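Late entry, written up from scratch paper. The run itself happened at the end of the previous shift, but nothing got recorded in the book at the time, so transcribing now.
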Amino acid sequence: MTRRLPTIHGITEHDAGPWRMERLDLEFGNGERRRYERLHGRGHGAVIVVPMIDADTALLVREYAAGVHRYELGLVKGRIDAGETPLQAADRELKEEAGYGARSLEVLRTISLAPTYMSHQTHLVLARDLYEERLPGDEPEELEVVPWKLDDLDQLILREEFSEGRSIAALFVVREWLRTQGAGA
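Output as recorded:
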C-alpha cells in the first residue's frame, strides 16, 4: 500500500546540545492531527567502515564507550568533517582508529539509527586493499584492532561487548553483499 506523506502544518525548533530538536505539527491522510518530535544532528553526517584485511576477515576496534561505561567492540566510525566526502571521511577514520588506509572504498548504503525520531544517517563504507598508515585521531588512547572472520558473525553477535546496532547491521550487510555481488571485486 502506498500512502501519501503527512502534511506538515508547522515546525518549531530548539537547540538540544549537539542536536536540533524539531516539533512537527502533522496531519495524516485520514485527517488525524498529531505532534511528532525529531532530532537533527549538527554537521555533515557519519561513516561506519568495514575494513577487510583479506577476503574473509574484517577489522574491528575496541574502544571505550561512555554511554555504557565499558570497552565496546565495533567498527571504525566517525563524523564526516566539513568539505569531506563520505569516502574521504572513511579513509581518514580508518587511518586514525585502526592504522590502515584503503586503496578501494565503496559506499554500499546508508543506515539510520532510529528513523522514527532521528534524521541521522550513517554511510556504510566497505574498505578493501588495505595498507598500513596511521593518522593522529581524537581518541584518548590507541584502539585495539581485532580481526574477525565474517563466517563467525554468529559468535560475535552473542558477545556482550559487541552491542552497537550499526556495527551489527553493517557486518551482516557486507557479508551478504560480498557473497552475492562483491566477491570478485
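The chain has two domains: 7-41, 45-183.
(Scratch paper discarded after transcription.)
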